[in-house]
């Protein structure tokens, strides 16, 4: 059947070809073809007949090459999942399915990739055309459309060589002469664990006769170069030269019902819930949107939810070939396509297939005479992986990335170093890290405090955890007197509000980083890895210094105290936001303001500005000295990099390129600052923020003194204001010192990687990023590396990049989404967490990559998440909306520092808001409105 371009990617429904054949029995050395009626009488479903090789010689001859180095045709029974390179992903899975006891697969054969290669050998300048395709921008749709159409025309126009044509026609004849067939593409990069390629190539249903089969095989070959297939490969890093096309030809049947089975819930990812969609006739009606499908959810052999759709149309075979629509009589339109018993039986078959392949499957099926045939099974590539455990117990995990404001996938070296750094064990899944909080939730003593702290930081995580707790028995409750883990932030901390405490901590951190920079210079080989491993303990000591923890906790508690008390006493919402403007010692906010100072140096020199607009390589700093004002500009940028060059977007992953490595990443922001600000803007902005905080303090204290018992309330509030302004700035320093150390480690590790490349151990320096720290230690020691492991990790990382990590994940695989549970919002508003008070209107700039930010005064930044690497953008915007964040995460802290109204934790903000729309951001009440165009 024809395949829609967005098939599988937008909805659970799938293409659902219905195929069946007859069955063979094996005699002593001879395969005998038995009639269909024989098996019908025995109650056995036809599986793999239609291939009538009478002897081993006939079987070899049927393949198309008896003495050659390859085969143009293979019976599906000869195929298994190890032969993807020969028969493509779809055929490999079909062949493997036929080997599973109790799973029935239609008869057919595969035209192998040898045949495809043989045909394209004759294509004029095919190599040059593929090279051209590889150089295209995946977003250049017009050029991709034109170039891919040209390649398709060439492939379809090639005369199929006689021996290839004879092999295909002979196999078609043996399948049943003029029998109706389905002709389906099977690319070598299709239906793989990391990338499905679903819907990228073509399928044709009800193809009548060998001549028509041969024509449609050529069309499948050409479909390797559809616009959507070329774009998909470009986006996923697949080389056009390395992907080849096989074609599956199978007998076709016309079922009572057809549909799709997911052995894990495609919406929640729960591995214990199966999802079934079913409709009458051929399944393309579901895919093309002609009809709605019946939908079932099954757990533990029980249908737990069912929706029966009104099905007005079915797709049937046309006598002349192809398919046609047929109206369903009104009396049947609201009848279920399957009984509940059939649904449960189908799911049991799916579980058998899932167990065989070792992972959840996306299965196409059809129903004939109350028997199910499986016509395709592929891994579900959209499920987020589950952390590995071996205890058989239930577990609840909380995302680390949502706390760190960096939810992107990390490479193995980055994951392992972060795990070495943290004080708490962290589980790994999908290139991200998670904390197992099952014990905290199980203990009545720690549960309430944990939920309180988490809920204040990120209400969606708090609500998701409460949802899990409401499920009877998933998290077992420990006795009330069981030992409980202490929860930071719950108990009040004892510390004097003394600015010298912060300056002392800063001095300690600077001295510690300077020491590691000095000592690491003489280290190489195994000694270097040993040094870093030992120094990580010093990093941990500074990160989790008890004094540092008390300072951060004191600032958080003072913030909560101010917001709660001033709301109760004065009706002030989020009062701490204004009171924490321009606090001292906030290294991240200083970083953004310092880039305004760099712009001040560059702005007077038009030749430098013009040069920077055209920079496209990292060596531009040395080129500046030849321009008027260039030396000053170079020195200003270098001084900034000396102070902040260890930072970058996603900086908790040591493998990410630092600004010091790629200073071009800063140029868009510098140029924006040059054009949008007047000289001295940094000092004025900091001073203005400090003045506004002082004025807000005076106003609040005056209003409090007018209240009953006002002097006491004012004194307590003044103490808390002093406390929050003294300690809040330090909150950004521990990560600053951590990434400073990471940058030192990285420079040394890349120097070691360079030595390994020169020694022929590694192909390239970046290969070390795909090794865990302990694995890299072994490679440095032994000078031996598993290159295959490195390559597999690269492929896995690409697949992880496409996944969205959940805030809360269970050991069943369920991604539990929390909600805000609010009913006080304007109609159509997008709800989030208010983290920086105020209301602002402006143009939305949806930015997913800092390097592509094009901001103007008055813009509102809308993005998935922000970490310190985004801070330089904050000086140029008037409001902030993010999908991820909490009250004390980076974006919230810096937004308050700069006085930007901000709402974080807005689910799907970058998809719900279009670039250029006008927004109203209410950072006091926590919602965003999309305004009508003016």
UniProtKB/TrEMBL annotation:
It holds the Pfam family PPDK_N. This is Phosphoenolpyruvate synthase. NCBIfam families: PRK06241.1-2, PRK06241.1-3, PRK06241.1-4, RIF_Ptrans_rph. Gene3D superfamilies: ATP-grasp fold, A domain, ATP-grasp fold, B domain, Phosphohistidine domain. Residues 856-926 form the PEP-utilising enzyme mobile domain. It comes from the Bacteria. It comes from Saccharothrix yanglingensis. InterPro entries: ATP_grasp_subdomain_1 (IPR013815), PEP-util_enz_mobile_dom (IPR008279), PEP_Utilizing_Enz (IPR051549), Phosphohistidine_dom_sf (IPR036637), PPDK_AMP/ATP-bd (IPR002192). Residues 85-383 form the Pyruvate phosphate dikinase AMP/ATP-binding domain.
